[in-house]
């Protein structure tokens, strides 16, 4: 089905004569809808892939092997386990971030929070 507010074809038809060039100035009047609304375009792509994923689960070969794993991953016990892992991740991130080491201090042009979080995420989850 078509989504009323996330319809890529409607966005494309609105400005058929204008080409999408991401390298032009953002204030230019000839910017296309996709470049002006990147989050909307991202949501269109996500919804289309999600719809495709749920449609392919209806096929006999793919669905019979994926649906039980899907239900196992979204059951109540699995969601509680994910919540538990999230609490552990938050605690270990905060304890590592509180250490006064050079990697945890703000620097020029980089996010110290992101760097610390990725280190802890790799250690805890991966």
Give an overview of the whole structure:
The protein is mainly alpha-helical and 126 residues long. Helices cover 63% and strands 0% of the residues. It has helices spanning 8-14, 33-36, 38-56, 60-73, 76-97, 112-124. Helix 5 (76-97) crosses helix 6. The longest helix is centred in the last third of the chain and has 22 residues, at 76-97. It starts with 7 loop residues before the first helix and ends with a helix. Mean pLDDT is 79; it is low at 1-6.
Helix-strand blueprint:
Blueprint (H helix, E strand, L loop, with lengths): L7 H7 L18 H4 L1 H19 L3 H14 L2 H22 L14 H13 L2
Helix pairs in contact: 5-6
Total of helices: 6
Give the overall shape: flat
Biggest β-sheet: count, sense, barrel? none
Strand content: under 5%
Helix content: 55-70%
Radius of gyration: 22 Å
Strand-pairing-aware structural class = mainly alpha
Quote the distance from N terminus to C terminus: 37 Å
Oligomer: single chain
Q: Poorly predicted ranges (pLDDT <50, ≥5 residues)?
A: 1-6
Number of strands: 0
* Mean pLDDT rating: 79
H/E element order: HHHHHH
